[in-house]
What does this fold into?
Amino acid sequence: MRILVTGGVRSGKSRHAESLLAAERSVTYVAPGPVLDDADWQARIAAHRAQRPATWATRETGDLAAALAPEGPVLVDCLGTWLTRLVDDAGLWEAPSDEVTAYVERHTAEAVAALTGRPGRTVLVTNEVGLGVVPEHRSGRLFRDLLGTVNQRVGAACDEVHLVVAGRVLRL
It folds into this structure.
């Protein structure tokens, strides 16, 4: 079973995603976001870790396809931070849009192939970015467009997509 959980910031996505695997004794929790030397970011990570069972293993990596390789339940939180890390690590924020798009599409295809080949339960969290205003800056527009495409590709590979709004879940 593959489930994509999407919604806005602080909508309850992570809590819902974790609840989907609460009955599992051990879960590989994949944190694919950037590694930042920022006190606020570190506090967010610590708060998330404190909410999870001690039997869950955390794997911090930007290689999403490899992170989906282990058997057993996997929770990925989240695709938006993975995308940020992917583009950051490649230094592509200022590159031509078609170059960035091709790079992200290649890595997304690898991740989707790994996802569809997984035997274990998989829950992925992402941000819904298509409901707001058009970002003022190029990097914001690029991120919105790229994540929208990533979400479509991953959503198509999942058995279910859950939209979380104000802590309420709508199964799409």
Notes: The chain has one domain: 2-171. The longest strand covers residues 2-7.
